Each structure stands twice: as structure tokens, then as C-alpha cells.
Amino acid sequence: MFNEYNLEEIRDRARAAFIGMAIGDALGATVEFMTKTEIAGKYGTFREIIGGGWLRLKAGQVTDDTEMALCIARAIIRNQAWSRDAIAENFAVWLKGRPVDCGDTCRKGIRRYMLHGTLESPPNEWDAGNGAVMRLLPAAIYSLPDRHLLEKYLLEQAHITHNNPVSDAACLCLGTMIHLAISGASKNLLRREADGLAARFPTFRFEPYRGLATGYVVDTLQTVFHCVFKGKNFEECLVGTVNQGGDADTTGAICGMLAGAYYGMEGIPRRWIKRMDKGVIAEIEAVTDKLVAASPLGASDG
Ligand code: MN
Ligand code: MN
Known about the structure:
It is a single chain. α11 (234-242) packs antiparallel against α12 (248-263). The protein has 15 helices and no strands. By secondary structure, the chain is an all-alpha fold. The structure holds manganese (II) ion (2 copies). One manganese (II) ion binds at residues 63-65, 101, 249-250.
């Protein structure tokens, strides 16, 4: 499926996915934990990167979603290999650096690693938050185009903090959709993956949309899928998603990676890129190119 697409296009879509994720994080963080009604009352339609929110962010500042993804990306690049130890170590260094935010399940898993060296959290029926899904992008890019590697990397990075069948199913579905979107797949094909997840796990059914956008991974993916399949461009998908409120930085980050991969760099509004933290965008561009180059797809080039 990848042979028909050149590496230049793959690199563009991978970059758009990573930058789109950071934009969704920075945009959504302003309205995180607000309800849809509160957002409408305060902003009408919320659509600009202005910072603030409960974390009192600077405009263009990202949160744990982007930071944890960067932890994974740096671990891969530094080792030139997949290493759960290196990823967990980067999570630990990050947590010790007092990040602006960290979810409870992520914190618990990282602490467990710091105390006991545990690379796989014990199975837990309550660990079905969206923390493993929000950071999976580097694992998806680095495994291109190998579906078996994708599955291994997705679950290994997830289980450091989240070991739960619903979280796993969400990771596998979103990771597969990212592979497809980066390869230039149609929205119909992406839709088939999302519908497949809903067929295997009916709890993920997203039409009719229930209007819940919490940090429970089921609510999170329902919101992202509803808005991505309704939106006609990157901006519509992302604005639709974050205006649902709730865990808006994380629904935004996940929507941004998927819509970014699908629409590519030219689909991302310039005004949003300009508002982003310049250091974060520069690092994302550099690590994304390196992840693509180090992936089986990049290695097969020339
Ligand atoms: Mn966050
Ligand atoms: Mn969040």
C-alpha cells in the first residue's frame, strides 16, 4: 500500500500528524473541563490558541499529551531502536521535572516503574483512561508500514501505565487509522476501521453521538470519530472536537493527530502553527523526520 506513495508525502503527513496533535493539545487545553454549554457561553465557537484554562498556560504551550509523546520519540531516536526501558526512563525523568499536568493512571504507572522497574502495569479494569492512546503517535510512525510492529509497539508503550482491554482496543484501532491516513487512505477506509472497533466493542459506537467527551477512552474516541467524520477540513474537525469540552486537550490531541495525518501540512491553518511554542514545533519536525527515516519504510528507501 505504501509503494504508490513517495517518502516525501509520508513525511509530510507524519509531520502534520505530530504538529496537529500538539495544536489540538494547546487549543483544547484552554477549555479542558468546561462543558459544551460553558464554552458556548464564553466564546461562542472556540477556535483560537490563546492559552489560559485551568492550567494557566501560555498561548501555544502544550501539556502532558504532547510531552509524553515526545518522551517516546526521543527514546526511540536516542537508542535507534524500540526500548521500553528507555521510554519508561524518559517518562520518569519527565515526571521528576514537575510537568504542568499528569493523569492519575500515568502517574501511578511511572511511579511504579521508578520504585520497582516495572515495565508492564498489572491488568486493571479501571485503567481505561485515554492516557495510552494520547501518546501513541511515535510508535505508529516508527513502525511504518509494518502492522505487526505497530501492534507490538502500541501495546508495549501502553502497558507501561495502562493495561486494560478497552484501552488496548482503542490504541490498536487509532494506531491502524494513523498508519492508513499517513499512507493516504480515504475517509471511507478510516471509517471502516472505526466501525470495526464499534462492531468488536459496541461500547465504542459513536453514532448517534452521546455528547460525552471525558477522559474515559470510550468517550474520547467517540468524540474524535464523530467530529473527524463530520468535519470537512482539519479546522472543522478540531474545532468540533474541542468545543465538546471535557478532556478537550486530549480529544484535541487525538483528533489533531488523525486529522493531521489525513489532511497533511497544507490542511493545518497557518495561524495556529504561528501561535505554537516554536521550540516544540522545531523538535517535533526534527523527531518526526528521524522516526520516518528509522522506520522500516524509511530504511527501505534507497
Ligand atoms: Mn493534557
Ligand atoms: Mn487531558
